[in-house]
Amino acid sequence: MMLRHPIELTFALCLLVLGASYLFRSDHWVAFLKDAVCQPHRLFPLALVMLAAGIFIGASYNNWTSTWPIFISAFCWLMAAEGALILVFPQYLKKLQRIPEGFLRWYLRFGGVLLLALGFLLLLRYR
Question: Within 10 A of 66 (CB to CB), how many other CB atoms are there?
Fold first, then answer.
């Protein structure tokens, strides 16, 4: 079965790229997060993109009928919510300072493996 919607293909490819980035460039992501904790205003452009993309994709796709489309719809709405939370409550990013870098690096690598697996499964499921 082919991917039924261009958003599903885009989502699968984004999962693959982001997963590979988390897995192979976790040091860069840790540095980005540590910098964001010290200067939360640097995340505002990213938060605006997350909010806009989450709302746009969530509102236009918004499919709650079967397994994978529900995952994509939920992810989009969560992305919009996270963007809004960063814009409204940037001070909560300070809580990331308590997380040790080693754990954060492991968490990103583990997340990268999960995102890669989900991206591959989504591509294979609708192939």
Answer: 9
Which phi and psi (to 5°) does residue 104 adopt? -60, -40
pLDDT for 93 beyond 90 = no
Q: Are 12 and 3 in contact (CB under 8 A)?
A: yes
Residue 111 lies in a domain: yes
Q: pLDDT for 33-51, tens place per residue? A: 888 888 888 889 989 998 9
User: Which residues of the chain form beta strands (DSSP E)?
Assistant: none
Domain for residue 1, yes or no?
no
Find out whether 86 and 47 touch, Cβ atoms under 8 Å.
yes
Number of structural domains, the chain?
1
The one-letter code for the residue type at 35 is D
Output the pLDDT for position 3: 47
Q: What is the pLDDT of residues 13-26, one digit of tens each?
A: 989 999 999 999 99
Range of the domain at 117: 6-125
Cβ pair 116, 20 in contact under 8 A = yes
